[in-house]
Design brief:
With 157 residues, the chain is mainly alpha-helical. It is built from nine helices and two strands. The chain is elongated, with a radius of gyration of 23 Å.
């Protein structure tokens, strides 16, 4: 049985091996590792090669998390600012903000280190932002209807 030189444990028990195995087994190697690999390729890798591919995976993973969180922050921001300022087209604002290179790059620069150190917790953060993206304030919808009998409530809002 081949062992990992640094850890003196079987290669298949190594965290890097297990992670890469999952990526390859699910058909995501091209997306996360930059090339299509199979399990035989993984088994033939030296510790250094495995380490290099694992670092590539980490960078791609952190980048994807950063992009997702940045996009969610922008979406929630666009909806929230619409409650304060009269935005003409919230979807267009969101699109414009997502297409702004400086904004998205800086948001990713903030989120990527957080994702790298708190990866598992980022899923809760992402869950919250995705949920917030889909929240609609019902009172605003009620106020759009001129025939609505709750006009006094709408005036207060």
């Amino acid at each position: 049985m081949e062992t990992d030189i640094l850890c003196e444990q079987p290669k298949f028990m190594n965290k890097q091996y297990q992670t890469l195995n999952i990526i390859i087994s699910t058909g995501k190697s091209k997306e996360y590792l930059g090339r299509t690999l199979n399990i035989k390729d993984l088994d033939a890798m030296s510790h250094d090669e495995m380490d290099a591919y694992y670092k590539i995976y980490e960078l791609n993973y952190v980048n994807k998390v950063g992009e997702g969180i940045a996009s969610s922050i922008i979406c929630v921001y666009a909806k929230a600012i619409n409650k304060v300022l009269p935005i003409d087209d919230v979807e267009k604002l969101e699109s414009d903000l997502n297409n702004d290179y400086i904004l998205t790059t800086e948001l990713k620069n903030i989120m990527c280190p957080v994702a790298k150190t708190c990866g598992k917790l980022m899923s809760l953060f992402s869950l919250s932002f995705i949920t917030l993206k889909h929240v609609k304030v019902q009172c605003k919808e009620l106020c759009k209807d001129e025939e609505n009998s709750n006009k006094e409530v709408c005036k207060e809002l």
